[in-house]
Amino acid sequence: MAYRRTPAVQARLDAQAGLIVQAATKVLSRGGYAALSMAAVATEAGLATGTVYKNFDGKSALVRAVFRKVVAREVAAVAAAGALGTAVERVTAAVETFAGRALKNPNLAYVLLAEPVDAAVDSERLHFRRAFAETFESAVAEGIARGEIPPQDPRISAAALVGAIGEVLVGPLADAPHGESVVPELTAFAMRALGVRDDPGAGGARLETGVSDADA
């Protein structure tokens, strides 16, 4: 008869795997993907290297597990930040949260965004970008419906925003220290890209219609 793990045994194994993922996250945060090895993770977790291999069959599998955990946490933070308000407020909050959190942990964010990795890990990176794009897509679509943002394809605009933000962050993340203007500039860019520009004289943001004030 096939052996079945008891709930207690499964809980212990799950806790051990969680400890290993946590240790791997710390190693990645310090040295990036290139610095991560199963031995380094074992040392960080206080376990034997063989124990790490019992839970994950190699570096790629372990990093994919880290991606899934970290991405779920980061996407949740961005989604929560951009859940309420006008389209401009939601997109602004999402950009500030996305970029701000990345800049607080640049080594780990660089792994998630741009550091050369193997193909299996890179596929997780695509899921990462899609998940973030979905948070922007919702805000853009609602903004269009309310007339707060000019008509456009929400999916394309959201994907373009995530790609642009990631591209900009690669420089500051890879070449610390970064400038304090990165997040404000990214936010301003996002508004321009969506067709919204700040108009202090009108008391706030407005649609970019392509018609100049002189022609209006």
How would you describe this structure to a colleague?
With 216 residues, the chain is mainly alpha-helical. Helix content is 69%, strand content 4%. The protein is built from 9 helices and 2 strands; from the N terminus they run H-H-H-H-H-H-H-H-H-E-E. It has helices at 7-31, 38-45, 49-55, 59-81, 87-104, 106-113, 119-145, 154-174, 182-193; strands at residues 196-199, 204-207. The chain has a two-stranded antiparallel ribbon with strand order 1-2. Strand 1 (196-199) and strand 2 (204-207) form a beta hairpin.
Q: Give helix % range.
A: 55-70%
Query: How large is the share of residues in beta strands?
Result: under 5%
E-strand count:
2
- Listing every helix as H and every strand as E from the N terminus to the C terminus, the arrangement reads HHHHHHHHHEE
As laid out across the biggest beta sheet, the strand order is: 1-2
Provide mean pLDDT, rounded. 84
Quick gist of this model?
The chain has nine helices and two strands; from the N terminus they run αααααααααββ. With 216 residues, it is mainly alpha-helical. It has a two-stranded antiparallel ribbon with strand order 1-2.
Key structural traits:
mainly alpha; disordered C terminus; 216 residues
Question: Which secondary structure elements does this structure contain, and how are they paired or packed?
Answer:
Elements: H1 7-31, H2 38-45, H3 49-55, H4 59-81, H5 87-104, H6 106-113, H7 119-145, H8 154-174, H9 182-193, E1 196-199, E2 204-207
Antiparallel strand pairs: 1-2
